[in-house]
Amino acid sequence: MDSTWTENIIERYCVLTEDAGAGKPVQLMDWQRGLIRDAEGKRMVWLEIPRKNGKSAFIAMLAIAHLLKGFKDGTNPQVILAAATREQAGILFGYVRNMILLNPQLQKVLEPFRKEIRLKGKPGYLKTITSDGGSNHGLNPSLILCDEIHSWNEVKGPELWEALRTSMAARPSQMIAITTAGSAYSFAHKWHEYAQRVAEQPEIDPSWLTIIYGATDEEDPHSPEVWQKANPSLGITVTYQYLEELSNTAKHDEPTLLSLRKLHLNQWAGSAQPYIELGKWLKCQGGKPKTLDKWRCFLGVDLAAVNDFTAYAVVYFNGERFYTQQYYQITDHAMSKRKQKYPNLVRNWIKNGSLDVVKGEVTTTDHRIAMIEQIMEQHPVEGIFFDPWNAAETVERLRSKYGKQFCWEVRQSALMVNEPMKLLFRMVTTKGITHDGNPITAWMIANTSLHIDKNDNWTFQKDKAPDRIDGTAALITALAGYVHNASTGMSTYEELDIIFV
Fold this sequence. Notes:
The protein is of the alpha/beta class. The chain has helices at residues 5-13, 30-38, 55-73, 86-101, 104-107, 156-166, 187-200, 224-230, 240-250, 254-264, 278-282, 332-341, 343-352, 365-378, 392-402, 414-429, 439-447, 470-484, 491-495; strands at 44-48, 78-83, 110-112, 116-119, 125-130, 143-147, 174-179, 208-212, 296-302, 310-317, 322-331, 355-358, 383-386, 407-409, 433-435, 451-452, 458-459. A hairpin with a 4-residue loop joins strand 10 (310-317) and strand 11. Helix 3 crosses helix 4, helix 9 runs antiparallel to helix 10 and helix 12 (332-341) crosses helix 13 (343-352). The longest helix has 19 residues, at 55-73.
């Protein structure tokens, strides 16, 4: 097949901008050439590709080729580089600017300014916008190049996305959205799922082209064949040696393994440093065991803030396996804010989330006590375990009613959560735990980050999470009761007055 105009222009005028090859003509890689050809006539192109595969430089090449085409045809080209942050936008703009500065031929047509690239003697420009900026309505772009969609602001990002998509109505424009894998249940993940649907059924949206490079959850992350499948630039912009070194470390370090799978194999996960992969958690969903009435039962509670989620995790165990159900409370005031941010998620929460929505702006001790009593009517709870923060009044009232040795504190420190976090991770990995499929819990599992200190102690950090993780915290709190006392039949409770610290 003959090369397209865009291919010819890129290889004739675009140059490398970094390292020893700076200033040398670009030679398009096969995947880049394939995208250019397949994208002709498509309004939307969705590309998922792991880090270090040359996507930022490719964006610059596409931008320059489009500007030159507009200069030739006199069509007033308007190119928008849309990025997550000013820093990322600056990186993209820098690639374009440097390609122009390193090639005198381009400087005859394109003039770089501090924040824009302009055509010389003709109307047309390139500029950047960011997902954390203000309104971007009123644009009339001919080409939109979006980068790192997974990092876009979760509130303003969707607004920018819609502003850009609707700006293409007046001319035959094209949007190319490029991203690496990101957080599950994020704005980008919604479009990832849509892109997969279109890939499977192109007829539902003929204007859309999906290109996804990545590994499936079942594939071996240490296999060079899998690396090759997920990284189309392997051996050129990313080396086998680098991935081999990362893989060797990942065989002995779980966080490195998660980074390898998410950043270099393009597998969607939860937080930036995920604790449990969402896909593995979802595969543990199942029905109640038939002999559940003979299993022991604990309740973990994370009271969190009075104006947001309170989480209750019921954990059953029979000495070998676990089963868990979760319940949640939230104020209608907080729920209205969630609806604005996650409208599709919230509809699923209301339908399937075992969610109690409390009127007003705060949940009170009475609300919490009522929920716990309701749970205890449905489950044979032997003991309740609390994160003591914000729980003093609730715990005191429960102890007054059920006895001092029925309610126990589990502080969220490495001393108390290290073992239960590792236990939960093992149980999910080996499918030794089954859960009820609560979508709120799945969302919170996806939000949970893993922190490991120098002594290999595992903890979670709420302030590092992209959103709430109270359900994860409640589950780990309940498992702490099992780890530290339940396996011994709670004999320590019967003999000593213990408070976890």
